[in-house]
Each structure stands twice: as structure tokens, then as C-alpha cells.
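New to this. Please check this fold:
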Amino acid sequence: MKGTARFAIWGLALALGGASWAQVLRIGVVGPMAFVQGEHTWYGATLAAEELNRAGGVLVGNQRYRIELVRVDTNEMTSVTDAATAVERAITAQRVDFLIGGFRSEAVLAMTEVAADYKKPFLITGAGLDGILAGRVDRNYERFKYLFRVSPNKSSDLARTSLLLLGEVVQAVRRDLRIERPKVAILAERAAWADPLVETATRLIAAPPPQGYRAEVAGTWRPSATATDVTPELTAIQRAGAQVIFTVLSGPVGVPFGRDWGRLKIPAAAVGINVEAQQETWLKATDNLGAYVATLNTLAPAVAITPKTIPFISSFQARFKQFPIYTASGAYGALYILAEALNRAGTTAADAVVRALEATDYTGPAGRIVFDKTHDVIWGPGYTTGLGVQWIGGRMQAFWPRQWRVGNQTVSYAGVQPYQLPPWVVEAWRR
């Protein structure tokens, strides 16, 4: 229902059986709950809350707190106003103490204004726009110090990683198809977070090595994040003669893209960001037409980024019967980060908790989380970068990082396999 606030705010009391609790921490979990991006935020937070409560809750000073989650459906896919109103209602009517979540960057900008108004710490777990933190926390610290980003990496860092994945595919085109200067089409949803990725990709695709790829930009197409048909864009890309499609898709448009791309056998390999392709339901959702799609992901089956990766995936799958996307691992980590900060602070007072959050050094399922001066998660080897995954043989398979050289470091994970071009792309272009 557009134009009016639509709320689905449910309390989840995750208590130990028979335990006596003196205090309760009410944590608002915010997101578009009708979509997987919000649903997995809720699931990740739920898993962490259950684990923490089973272990005795959160020790703050000499008081032990039970975590109670409040489910806040923001309707942010369709209404920024609804999202801001939902967060305000969570604070004023549902009396939440802290906030985690958020997905659509335009909506998160509005939601975080509300959080700043009420001085409520907000750990963002789904929105990538640089400007959610940069230019706010650093320029108006007293107002925006309550904001932190656990995941994903900010858009400019997502551009770095997704362009590294693009580089793998461009190399495969050169090697296997013997096309020295491949044509790359950019397909990015119309959303604020995608804009810097489009700008960076446009510049670096054509730039010479080592910064660029010495390829050619075949054109840029910007469908709606909720489009149900991308056939016009894909046929235009085919006419443009592209061998590669660089995707920047976080919304539900990712599914029709994969379905139409596979149905039409577009002779261009798809790589970049496609959040819908991060789910284990990808092939079913695309009628088995999304094979060979490659995307940046946070996790991959059987790839241990840290000692916590595989246990988290196993617990999540056992509990929810799904493979976790990045909002799940982000929300899971955010709750643990908040719990550790509360323990260090010894109080629930917001300013003290902020100071404790600034000292975060937490290793979670997706990597090591440390915040920079703008309260953004640090990107790079030894911190968080994500993985490149591709749908091969009916399953998600990691293909990056594999012998990734950064300065004097080489980054690889066990289980990472070489990237494979789709066979119909090879057939169409092999010379």
C-alpha cells in the first residue's frame, strides 16, 4: 500500500527456558520483509539472538540482558516515506533500544535521519551507498555518530571487488575466445547505490592496465530494480555485440534478468552483482535458465573465509532451510558486534555504546569487521572483500579469490575453482 505506512512489527522473545531475566534489550530489525533481502536480515538476527540468549544473554555492567527482537517491515522497496515512518514508530511506539538492518540506500538515508534524531545506534546491514556514512559521520559527528555499517562494503568498495570479478571474465574471453578487446555492456538497476559502480566501471573498462581492462564499453542500460522483464535491454545488448554483461542488480529484477538471459541464450557472459543469484533458490526461480550467471557474494558453500563461516552456514541452513545471503550474515554479525560493544561499555547509554562500537574488531562469518573513521566497514585482504561465485553444475561454486595478488599478499581459499564461460557464449564467439 503506497503512500501510507505499512507495518509488520512483531515482538520475538527469545528467552532461555526457565531462566530469570532482570532486563531486556529490544532491538529493531528493519527491512523489506516481503523480500528475501529483509527476510534474511530477520533470519540472521534471529539466529544470533537465539545463540546469545542460550549462552546467557548479554552482560552489561552487572546486569544480564535478554535480547528481544522487534520485526519492522519498512516497505522500503516501494516507499521511502513508509520506511522512515516505520523506524520512527519502532522507536516511539515499540520502544526499541537499538536498530539493525536496512536495505535500499535511498530509504536507509531517510531511516538513519530518524535514528539520528532520536540518538539511536543503527547498525546498517544491507545498504551500500557511500554517502550514508561518508559526508555525514565525518562532517557532523555529533548528529550521525550513531550510524555504523557492518555490511555490505560501501559502493566504491563493491565496485573494486565486482570489477575484479569482471577482470576474471574479460581474461577468460581473451584466453578462450581470442577476442583481444572484449565489449562489455553495463546493466545496472536505477538506484542511488548503483550510480558510483556504473561511473567507475565505465571509466575502468576502457582504461589501460594495471588499473583498467583495455576493453570497450558497449553501452549502459538502467532497468527498474523491480522490473519483471528485461528482454528489451538484453536484445539491445546482443545487438551491440557485447561478449560480457557487467550487472549491478540488488533488487528482484535479478530473477527476470537471469531467466531472460538464459532463455534468449544471450551470447554475453554475465558477471558483477546480482543479489537474487546469491540464493540457493536461484535456479528454481529462473526456471533453471540462470546457470553460469556469476555474482559477487558474501559466502559460498564449503568455502571457509574464517573459522566461523561454515558453522554459521550450517546453523542457518538447519534453522531456515535456505542458504544465507549477505543481509543474513550482516545481521548475524551486527548483533554479536552490538553485544560485545554493550559488554565493553558496561551500560546501554547510547554515547558510551557508540564509543565501544568504534573499537570493534570482530571476526564473523564473512571476515574481520573493523570500522574506519566514518564508521564504515574496512575493505581488503584480512578484513572483508566477498567472494565471486558462479552457478555451475546445478550449484553455487566460488571462483574468486584464487591466487589474488595484493601487494606482497596472495589471497586464496580452499574450494575456489576457475571461472567457466557459458557454452553458448563460447559457441557464438569462438574464432
Q: What stands out?
A: The first strand starts at residue 10 and ends at 13. The CA atoms of residues 82 and 163 lie 34 Å apart. Confidence is low (pLDDT under 50) at residues 1-19. Residues 156-297+401-429 form a domain with the Rossmann fold fold (CATH 3.40.50.2300).
